[in-house]
Design brief:
Distance between the termini: 38 Å
InterPro entries: SS18_N (IPR007726)
Helix content: 55-70%
Protein name: SS18-like protein 2 isoform X1
Organism: Octodon degus
Largest sheet: none
Number of strands: 0
Family: Belongs to the SS18 family.
Order of helices and strands: HHH
Length: about 80
């Protein structure tokens, strides 16, 4: 199960740290590899569940990025 899945009763209580983000990025890497493998075998329908998990992870990461302070933008400018 994806590390991004959080039961409704726990939402808003999770602490997001670098380790969690790194695990999500690694999971996304594996999901993309699996999706590509299924598509190369001509089994595009079988990869839909992996695409859904990948989508959920990407939305979760984007939400974290949007909620983060813009300090990284200021240091690179």
């Amino acid at each position: 199960m994806s590390v991004a899945f959080v039961p409704y009763w726990m939402r808003g209580k999770a602490v997001v740290d670098q380790e969690t983000i790194q695990r999500l990025l690694e999971e996304n890497d594996q999901l993309i590899r699996c999706i590509v493998e299924y598509q190369n075998k001509g089994c595009a329908n079988e990869c839909v569940q992996y695409q859904q998990v990948l989508h959920r992870n990407l939305i979760y990461l984007a939400t974290i990025a949007d909620a983060s302070p813009a300090s990284t933008s200021e240091t690179t400018a």
